[in-house]
Amino acid sequence: MDTQITFIGAGNMASAIIGGLTQSGTAADSITATAPDRDQLADIGARLGIRTTADNAAAAATADVLVLAVKPQLMREVCQGLAESVQQARPLIISIAAGLDATTIDGWLGGGNALVRCMPNTPSLVGQGASGLYANDRVSNAQRDTATRLMQAVGLVEWVDDESLLDAVTAVSGSAPAYFFLMFEAMEDAGVRLGLPADTARRLAIQTALGAATMAGQSEHDPATLKQNVMSPGGTTERAIATLEDANLRRAMDDAIQACAERARQMAAELSGER
Ligand SMILES: NC(=O)C1=CN([C@@H]2O[C@H](COP(=O)(O)OP(=O)(O)OC[C@H]3O[C@@H](n4cnc5c(N)ncnc54)[C@H](OP(=O)(O)O)[C@@H]3O)[C@@H](O)[C@H]2O)C=CC1
Ligand SMILES: O=C(O)[C@@H]1CCC=N1
Fold first, then answer.
1. Cβ proximity of 271 and 72 under 8 Å
2. What is its pathway (predicted)?
3. I need a surface site. Which of 2, 116, 122, 138 has the fewest CB within 10 A?
4. Domain match, 125 and 155 both
5. Per-residue pLDDT reduced to its tens digit, 78-111
6. Is 67 near ligand 1, meaning CB less than 6 Å away?
């Protein structure tokens, strides 16, 4: 029988991963998702063909892999409701919650669990996700492979040995699709100011990002060299890049990424106090 995967929570991130999994060949009937809202469940069930239920404990009882995908603020209550099933079935737990540390979640689940913390991102929906993973010391090599296979089905997987680095992963990839979406908004607005139709400006900006990302991923050159290759001396790009450097884009990006990681640490401190 296929590995049974249960998602507790069927929101943005869970549906992005589930959508990516079903598109990459995972059998829909091996996936179950739970949520309190039956309309939301009916929608995701109809869209993705997966099993759905509002009964968290029952869904956990039959899981080989249990993905915790609720908001961090709800995690304590949800885990405590799952503890009995988890203690009996002993699935591999994968938490995708920002901030919350493995020991806290394991404690809420009654302790002694093999637990992987994963920080994914929403491009998982189109098979272009990027996830950072950390395993606690109860996770076997076979379970590590299971977690790798699961998340590799929806994109890039990078393991970290130090759990605190997941806050950096959150800042550099988990939250980062939003940084690029902000950039697309800004580029579209600027293109419109120059007279382009909005949809043309949007398509050009998005395709350029896709092209630049694909090129940077495949090239033997680093991003600084690729950037230099676009900049003809005295030309247009040089002027644009100088403007961005003068506006201190690097500093703004560094501030944003440090603030994001700091917020993840803050959330962990706030929420683990409830242990
Ligand atoms: N969004 C993102 O880009 C990323 C999110 N994450 C993490 O993923 C987790 C989920 O975030 P996101 O998907 O954005 O949040 P959403 O609010 O979109 O999804 C949360 C889901 O949990 C459901 N839910 C609420 N209460 C319960 C309950 N008691 N039992 C079962 N399900 C419940 C919600 O249902 P309802 O809508 O009815 O309340 C909803 O389906 C968070 O911990 C976040 O830190 C990690 C990486 C990226
Ligand atoms: O904004 C958040 O808290 C979540 C975690 C990473 C992306 N979204």
1. yes
2. Amino-acid biosynthesis; L-proline biosynthesis; L-proline from L-glutamate 5-semialdehyde: step 1/1
3. 2
4. yes
5. 999 999 999 999 999 999 999 899 999 999 999 9
6. no
